[in-house]
Amino acid sequence: MTSRLEGKVALVSGSGRGIGRAIALKFASEGARVVVNDLDAGPAEEVVAEIRAAGGEAVSCVGNVTAPDFAERFVGTAVSEFGGLDIIVNNAGYTWDNVIQKMTDEQWYAMIDCHLTAPFRILRAAYPVIRDLSKKDTDAGRRNLRKVVNISSVAGLFGNVGQVNYSSAKAGILGMTQTLAKEWGRIGVTVNAVAYGFIRTRLTGDVRDAATANIEGREIKVGVNPDLLATMERSIPLGRGGTPEEAAGAVFLLCLPESDYVSGQTLMCSGGLTGI
To answer: Which H helix or E strand runs over 59?
Structure first.
């Protein structure tokens, strides 16, 4: 293990699987203490165990990020278990697609609640903690720049057929990112976003595998038509979808000291794809 993030405390929502898991493992391998979150206890505890087995430090905070009490629990876990908070990654998410004329209010609000309201609540809950920690750092003559990375998508930048709910939420998180970069700079926080293109996870696998995600008791079918998958990959300049580890690398870049003067920006992690 190396130590580029030695002593940092990181919250990573949706980190029991996929991209979030890769982010949590990457942070821990670089010395961060990580609060792992997932809807289900099993995946979250597996990541915690993996981090600890490698010599890192991690705890879990299980629950749905859209629950009214989740943000306070999530932030509170970082403070009670590790005594601080340095990095927040708002990663939790899924898709629930339909064309607008067939989309229900439930589908619309599910995406807005998960991808926009939940990050808002987490950051709102984190503010007083970070403000107080920043003041203590200043009083002690310490320089400790903190980091927020919000996860967006190329769908939030360019739109995507069948994803008016998801695209709208992912566009909204970019506005949140730019606003908080202006509001939180004075307390020593950079706020950036990563917009992913096609990353290979269980949510973007072959739809013929009949995989589903259980979200609040709803079995939501996940996956992509194989012909569409092939077309998508051909449109990517690098010729393939990204891996979760590559996706995690983009977030890691924005959490390094070398990015301390980068704020209010959106980094596309898309293999060179610049539109949909």
So the answer is: strand 57-60
Q: What is the DSSP string of 96-152?
A: --B-GGG--HHHHHHHHIIIIIHHHHHHHHHHHHHHHHHHHHHHTT----EEEEEEE
**Whether the predicted pLDDT of 7 surpasses 80:** yes
Q: Where are the domains of the chain?
A: 9-197+243-269
CA gyration radius, the chain: 18
Percent of the chain with pLDDT over 90: 84
Distance of CA 235 to the CA centre of its chain: 25
- Which of 94, 109, 127, 166 is flagged as catalytic? 166
Q: Is the per-residue pLDDT at 47 higher than 80?
A: yes
Position 217 scores a pLDDT of 74
State if pTM tops 0.90.
Answer: yes
Our answer to whether residue 166 is catalytic in this structure is yes
**CATH 3.90.226.10 applies to domain 9-197+243-269:** no
Q: How far apart are CA 204 and CA 169, in angstroms?
A: 18
- Name the DSSP class of 241: P
